[in-house]
DNA sequence: ATAAATGTTCTTTTT
DNA sequence: GAACATTTAT
């Protein structure tokens, strides 16, 4: 390919060009002729020379304003680099500037840079910021994305090498659970004792560690259903491959397998990616680590950025060890610490640092700031009677801030668990305070959206069992368990997708006439939609599908309160499809990007979990619910002991460091857990804050005034916050408790249940997605195991003699019911 | 086959 | 207390 800038030969990369243009749908990376040299025009001479020149002659302006450490992190582009970036130290800036630097020095084409993030949001942000550097167009950065999206891209190209078709579909956790459940039931295992969820957790653990069924240990195999772990894992994978589908873990795993078994392919990618960057390295799991290591073999230009103190995803397999071992794994690594904080006041920094210092096994960083203002507020710690009062008080404070001219956009409430959000939502609704929930139940998880998507999936991906199951009988068309069971049996026996099995069944008299015609009609619809999709715009087809299937009709007739909203959501769904070229493209997008871009520009308080707050910052941050059992969460303690506690502490650290100017921590003495009220103890983390940077706030509005007593009953001794709290409360019958109950009842009467549209979509479980072309033909090539004249037994029709054979369909003359067409797997020889 | 009633379990965080 | 799942009744 012609190179307009004339430095193509310097890079010696003919491979890339052919590679990027060999055209996968959705992978058209329009080559940007002048992407790289916007900032530094290409000149003759080697890359290094140019890079050095760039550095000497007054640094390009993108380097300006970086502190020495940041600058070093940006400019050290050769060799392995670990950037330990504390909270608020300009991590993202370093990452994006580094990419800009690589491009500006002409060291690589955009398409030769692999940049990995964990969330789609982070990827999007990085793209935006790089676009800013290189003049608007980042189309060339084809390999900037999440681990998962990059893996999909690679897999679509080489799917056959791992036994998939390139059109494979991606199932989400919901689909995964259903599939597991089917397998467990098919094995005849008691799914009460051995729940699908438990198996999903095991499976997740294996995949996070890149273990295939053969590689899991005996012990782990035995850990489920008395030794069936491995078998179930094998069957699960088997089923997935029939369905031509992957789960999230498979995306990584299959690429690893691909690389291991096809060294030439790996080599191509190793050569292709001249520079690799990984964001949030502390969150990588073993599979991701192995993935990266494979790619980094023979190319040391790996830059990992992370903060061991912000590792909060241990529960989903993240290995802090990856970051702790970096120097060891990548020989000659340069480690750069970013410790200068540009975000928070010194009180906030000191509090966070003091807190996190209680953890062992850190790489150790000390954040500092140059800015100190005597006006800065200390970190506030306040107490309240119960969670309702907590919401009320925080609401009041927010209104006060608002009166003083603060923007709601600069305020956030960060909770440990999402159930805490509800209380705030209820309160803010009554106050008329704008809020937005970030990361809550998502658009694509709503029932109506999932249903609609299931229809689309059935059309586009005819092997998508999970989608099929979801909507065969939605709206109701008389296809119940009995019918479904038959379809399942056939599908399992013949190892074919459900839709195909259903098709076969319709050609026989196995089903009751009513069910048969209902099923036939659905399948015919699928057929027709599939055909029409070829010449009709996909958004139009989407509408047609929803109408003709009776799905919209179903909601129109529904008189419940949510129905209109659901219809709106469906409209929005179709509208959002417009940005995609095809229905298949849309489905892929949704399976990887479950978040909807909320582009509301309104001023609103943000409510979110601590986990989803990572990477964000706000002037004012409220941190409610600092109570033992909730935060640190009991389950983290029970399941992971000390490690769990440390992770919770890191979570607290993340929370506090989100605040730029004000951090306000709350705890309640009573909280409803499992529906019943329990008195609670202040979190131990409160005692780990440095008292000189903290201000204890007395609540004027407390129900206070009941004598001594206090908390401190708990297991770990008295807290210094015990004394600051004026109530006693170990019984459920104190006046305060009763009052709280009454207030609550009154509140509910006024607000009338929660109006909450978030919950609307979450109630029903959805099916999932699978896809592929028909795996088997409807008439089997295999010679039949039966012969004409043979006497057979059918469980429903009894004994009969075979009259004719057509593939796997037998025409049998039954003694009682006469001639019927049935499928051979439903009869046995006699 | 469906709707209503009853019982059961759980509530962390997410690509 | 709520969302589920299963059982029972129609």
From TrEMBL:
Record's catalysed reaction(s): Couples ATP hydrolysis with the unwinding of duplex DNA by translocating in the 3'-5' direction; ATP + H2O = ADP + phosphate + H(+)
Organism from which the protein derives: Roseibium litorale
Residues covered by the UvrD-like helicase C-terminal domain: 346-615
CDD domains attached to this UniProt entry: DEXQc_UvrD, SF1_C_UvrD
Database matches in PANTHER family: ATP-DEPENDENT DNA HELICASE SRS2 (PTHR11070:SF2), UVRD / RECB / PCRA DNA HELICASE FAMILY MEMBER (PTHR11070)
Keywords of the record: ATP-binding, DNA-binding, Helicase, Hydrolase, Isomerase, Nucleotide-binding
EC number: 5.6.2.4
EC class: isomerase
Binding annotation for ATP: 85-92
Assigned protein family: Belongs to the helicase family. UvrD subfamily.
Positions of transmembrane segments: none
The name this protein goes by in its record: DNA 3'-5' helicase
UvrD-like helicase ATP-binding domain mapped to chain residues: 64-345
